[in-house]
Amino acid sequence: MARLKRAPIMIGVFSNLAEEFIRFKRSLGFKYESETKCLSRFCRFSQKRGIVKPEISRSLAEEWISPREGEATSTRSHRITCIRQFAIYLNHLGYEAYVIPEIKGLTRDSFVPYIFTREQINAVLQAVDETEPWEVAKNMHLALPVIFRILYGCGLRVSEVVHLKYKDVNLEDGILTIREAKTDKDRLIPLSDSVNQSCIDYAEKIWWEKDNEYFFLAPDRTMISTMTVYQRYRRYLDAAGISHGGKGKGPRLHDIRHTFAVHVLQKWIENEVDLSAMLPILSTYMGHTSVRATAKYLRLTAEVYPDLIKRVESSCAFVIPEVAYEGN
């Protein structure tokens, strides 16, 4: 018989605040399971040291994150992240809490996405628009400008775009239906007026025999391959004057999706939108399995636009994750 797992118990002066913090994080879509165990241990740690006020002093924080014998680097990094986020949350509520500075080099290196500037995106789209007709690649010069506008304008994965069927593109309402994508879930993607108009202009030049034919047809009326889009993408980068570091170094085609997310967040910050309320919406729109994946774009936004992110640090810095980036 399987033994039931008991939920970590919070004790001591930080117990109620820790539970409130966990509920808040989960309300944003974070699972916060291992973090709950970590905070439970911190509560016991604080109680043993006789802490009677819900404040995190520098000495308490530094003692908590000090290296432990036989402890993996990743485990210590996790402890540091938890206490940093909790301290930021406490500061937001008005409690005094020392925020441990970020310690670089504790987590394994991860690929850092390339974030295009808006000028670079415009240069790439201009290069796409100059695609010349080619007899053996019939209609590709019509399809590619629309494909790239959807990639940037909607933040879709390239596989989601090329898999679109004619029946999935509602030109009247400007909505795409993404079916059984990476997360095996369908979702609806509203188009901007300009992207929808690009789709309409393209559709006026193409003829489909059946509703289940691909919206972007290859010369043999099959699906345009992702490799074909990627090969063209490399040419467009060159034409736009953007150097490529080689295989695996980017800018990758998938970085257009990352750029979409960062640019959306940048616009929201400029417009003083409540990020904690909007992140779940962006998460659903992008087809992420959790808000955690979407929140990582806040870290990218902070790196690309440091002045902008300062505007929201006082109100929702505890939403910004401190984990290694994983692209999806």
TrEMBL record:
Signal peptide: none annotated. The keyword Flavoprotein does not apply. One of its GO terms (biological process) is DNA integration. It comes from the Bacteria. SUPFAM superfamilies: DNA breaking-rejoining enzymes. GO terms for molecular function: DNA binding. Pfam families: Phage_integrase. Keywords: DNA recombination, DNA-binding. This is Tyr recombinase domain-containing protein. It comes from Petrocella atlantisensis.
